[in-house]
């Protein structure tokens, strides 16, 4: 698992965010503050935020250590 500082340096806007079960969740809009990723707005125009601590690895995508179901239960609409 990456530390938050390294993840923040590697993550770029528009990268796909993939859950641990392989489901593509969204794309990165931006890094919010020191500890959150703002995902691109959904169809209703809402940003969802996830903590950088969930990032398992980064290549051309951001890979999380949570399943899609876990992410959707725990993400927030506020940073």
What's this entry about, in short?
The chain is an alpha+beta fold and 79 residues long. The chain has a single domain, classed as PRC-barrel domain (SH3 type barrels), CATH 2.30.30.240. It contains two helices and six strands, in the order αββββββα.
Textual characterization of the structure:
This protein has a single domain, classed as PRC-barrel domain (SH3 type barrels), CATH 2.30.30. The longest helix has 7 residues. The protein has a six-stranded mixed β-sheet with strand order 4-3-2-1-6-5, with helices on one face. The chain has 79 residues and is α+β, with helices and mostly antiparallel strands. The mean pLDDT is 95. 18% of the residues lie in helices and 34% in strands. The radius of gyration is 11 Å and the shape is globular. Strand 1 and strand 2 form a beta hairpin.
Task: Record the SSE blueprint.
Elements: H1 4-10, E1 16-18, E2 24-32, E3 36-39, E4 49-51, E5 55-58, E6 61-64, H2 68-74
Given the C-alpha coordinates, what overall shape results?
Answer: globular
CATH class: Mainly Beta
CATH superfamily: PRC-barrel domain
Would you identify the regions where 5 or more consecutive residues have pLDDT less than 50?
none
Mean pLDDT metric: 95
Number of separate helices: 2
Extended strand count: 6
Main sheet specs: 6 strands, mixed
